Amino acid sequence: MILSAALVLLGARSSLSFTATKIGTFHIVYWEPYINQDGAVALNDGDGLNTDMRAFYWKDGQLTQITVPDSMMTLAKGVTVRGIAEDGTVLACSNEPGFETGFLWTKDGGIIKHLPADFRPEAMNPSTKDMVGTGVEDGHWVQGRMHSDVFSPIFEVDQPDGMTAMNGSGVAVGNPATGDGVNQHPIRLGTDGTQEAFASAFREPGHQEMIGAVRAINSAGWAVGGIGYVGTTPREAVTEAGAIWSPSNQLTRVPGMVTFHGINDAGYVVGTQKTVRGKKAVIYTSVDGVQDLNSLIPGAGFDLAEAKAINNHNEIVCVDSSGYNVYLLKPSS
User: Average per-residue pLDDT in the chain?
Assistant: First the structure.
């Protein structure tokens, strides 16, 4: 399985062209958008102050806001999405001060299930709807798994919101804060609760501690994110590189001020590249390297700054340079 996945990743080519469909215009887009294999998208926006978070579901040109009853919004600051299942079910939360109330939502049924009040969901298995998230034990945050409304704690964390993604096999990835209160500890969390720190140690003369974050994982266990290191003086900027971790935890570092946000099962990786002129949305394979997605959309008339998610049909969710307009790219060839 690992060998097959490796061959697919190394052989994938990004010789594609795309057409773009506008999903909508939003406030500042927060968190990572999600896309399932059917092309349904779940995403968030906010007011820039994290006080009015809104959640949306989009499919086939129709945008629907995910709302909750007034009884859930007494103290809440809005709604955030944390995942989307292959059947279109959205994992979402109402943002309560100090904690969140999780629920499952569908376009036709609204809220179909309330999650236990002491569980803060962070990522969902798109096939089984099992989850990883944070609960409370003896007054402490603990990372764990939720299955059939039963929370199984695994390890203590300094704060919630550490896990970022979960694949259909139940393997989760994230950056939990453990020990120092900083979310810079990328890990893979196995289905049996085992933790594996992602390979991230690269130290070069004259540079300080490495930092990094994992963002996404595909069904074969390949994970992507970004890594970098801080210079020896405060004026030195963080040097960034895209990170790809194999199922056997081998790190591929892609230079060029790149951060990766998504990977599909064919090995196409999408993300953002910083340039002197600003950000641009990119697609990467080891065959073709980093390519500007804007160059693959004939006559687009806009600039895409961030590629946030990709599914197995090479459909990509992107945000333009304004930070307000979201597009869905579909291959035209």
Answer: 85
Q: Which CATH architecture group holds 2-331?
A: 7 Propeller (2.130)
Task: Give per-residue pLDDT as tens, 108-134.
Answer: 999 999 998 889 999 999 999 999 999
The residue-averaged pLDDT of 83-92 equals 97
pLDDT band at 71 (very low <50, low <70, confident <90, very high): low
Domain locations in the chain? 2-331
- Residue 277: burial class (beta carbons within 10 Å; 0-12, 13-18, 19+): exposed
Q: Is the pTM of this model over 0.85?
A: yes
The CB-side HSE value for 247 (13 A sphere, CA atoms) comes to: 18
CB count within 10 Å of CB 149 equals: 10
H, E, C per residue of the chain: CHHHHHHHHHHCCCCCCEEEEEEEECCEEEEEEEECCCCCEEEEEECCCCCCEEEEEEECCEEEEECCCHHHCCCCCEEEEEEECCCCCEEEEEEECCEEEEEEEECCCEEEEECCCCEEEEEECCCCCCEEEEEEECCEEEEEEEECCEEEEEEECCECCCEEEECCCCCEEECCECCCCCCCCCEEECCCCCEEECCCCCCCCCEEEEEEEEEEECCCCCEEEEEEEEECCCCCCCEEEEEEECCCCCEEEEECCEEEEEECCCCCEEEEEEECCEEEEEEEECCCEEEEHHHHCCCCCCCEEEEEEECCCCCEEEEECCCCEEEEEEECC
pLDDT at 174 over 60: yes
Q: Say yes or no to pLDDT of 316 above 60.
A: yes
Cβ proximity of 318 and 272 under 8 Å: no
Distance from C-alpha of 91 to C-alpha of 163, rounded to nearest angstrom: 14
